[in-house]
Amino acid sequence: MIISNINARDLSEAWYLCVREAYLNGREYVISKGSFETTKRKEIPLVAVQIMHPGTRPLSPIVPEGVPPVATEEVLQKYLLYLMTDTVQPGEDYTYGQDLGPQIPEVIARYKQWGYDTNRLCMSVGSRQSLFEYRKEEQGKKASSQCLRLVDTRIQDGALHFIVYFRSWDLWAGFPVNMGGLQLLKEYMAGEIGVADGTLNAFSKGLHLYEHTWDLAKALLRV
For the segment 85-138, what is each residue's pLDDT rounded down to a tens digit? Predict the structure, then answer.
């Protein structure tokens, strides 16, 4: 696996560059197990995304005329609550807030107590039981497992940085909302700790475009 490095100024540019890489150079294959089974997706097999100024507004990606918006500020605010609270809505099997919610205030408190030069404050999502959720399918039940698995933190040069990992990542419908919401969370935590807002860094071994979004990606890229 060869790593693709995406370096961007802001969230909008990062999303555009990832869509371009996935659509033009992504590995195309038929999904054998997972969402939209038996359809195709184009995937960046291994990607590192670094966004230097993720707080640049708007947080929602800018799209050309004719391409529907992929996120709105209202959606991002709702997603921030989803990251911070454990309320499960009808049809949801889990929320990231169930795991992150209790860890967020602990990270804030520990930075205030210990100072900034520590590598301990990493927030995890899911558990070793997450893998076994798929056994429900053998019983004819719906099964799902968290895509976001890690929100690591680091304070350096007076700023809070996030390092996140997604095991699988929908580039069109997921990336804009996920990253916008995580940026809002980072800004909140930085404010509570009393430091500046830093970079947003993401890694995944499966950042992909589903087949049903290929025409939209083509319209975005003007190819």
Answer: 988 888 787 899 999 999 999 999 999 999 999 999 999 999 888 888 888 888
pLDDT in tens, 135-157: 888 888 777 789 999 999 999 99
Closest CA to 107 of 88, 124, 95, 126: 124
HEC per residue, the chain: CCCEEEEECCHHHHHHHHHHHHHHHCEEEECCCCCCCCCEEEEECCEEEEECCCCCCCCCCCCCCCCCCCCCHHHHHHHHHHHHCCCCCCCCCCCCHHHHHHHHHHHHHHHHHHCCCCCCCEEECCCCCHHHHHHHHHHCCCCCCCCEEEEEEEEECCEEEEEEEECCEECCCCHHHHHHHHHHHHHHHHHHHCCEEEEEEEEECCEEEEHHHHHHHHHHHCC
pTM of the model: 0.96
Q: What residues does each domain of the chain span?
A: 48-202
Q: Does domain 48-202 have CATH number 3.20.20.240?
A: no
